[in-house]
Amino acid sequence: MSSIDVPLRGNRFGSTARRDLWWLGPVLTLLGLGTFVVYATWAAFQGNYYRFGPYLSPFYSPEILGDPQHAWAGGWPSWWPSWAASAALLILWAPGGFRLTCYYYRGAYYKAFWADPPSCTVGEPRKRYRGEKSFPLILQNTHRFFLYLALVFLVILALDVWRALWFINPQTGQAHFGIGVGTLVLAVNVVLLSCYTFGCHSLRHLVGGGLDEVSKSSQRHYAYGCAGCFNRRHMMFAWLSLFSVMFADLYVRLCAMGLWSDWRIV
Q1: Which residue ranges make up each domain of the chain?
Q2: Among 36, 81, 68, 99, CA closest to 235
Q3: Which of 15, 69, 132, 223 allows an S-S link to 137, with CB 3.0 to 4.6 Å?
């Protein structure tokens, strides 16, 4: 079949024939992601107020270096630069990389931050399309590897919720079962992060891929269907989990600073 190349005219940045509020989505995405990036960067460099009682901020979990009583490798070595003495800086690259390379987030921040394009049928501020075949966007193909790390982090954060159920009696020094508001905050965060991760496109391919017809394997077909249920709400869980992890850090931080009181439910 023959084809005809139709030249693009009037393709100035922002030019479009659309009459709807096409700019609203990118603006809200810019504000939402921008708020998270600014807060997460600030919180990561603080290096303190990330633990309160049995609660550990998800930004700092796992705590590889830090508090000698809790960190996996003990306290900071003497040669470590003071400006980088934050447990969050050692681990945030993994969950951050998972979100940065996420298929949904790519489309969201390409529009909001790079205007590539700002929206469908809207002019963008460049003449040539490079795609994801050259540096640095070719690094987006590492998403499946960040998925494996994200699954490990879910297990670690779930263990943090378990630890958040045990409170130390200051008089006896014994641990006893309890549920505080902070326990629920950390638990809800893990649930939302799990829903976001289980709906990942790469996970759906991992559990159901490798076959021309997934239905020929009942186990893979069931797993593919389960991942598909989460995937249909992938955008919703992406945003909910983004702000739940930020709120979980904020909650632990304000409690540790003495600005909030953690109510004990049980």
Answers
A1: 24-256
A2: 99
A3: 132
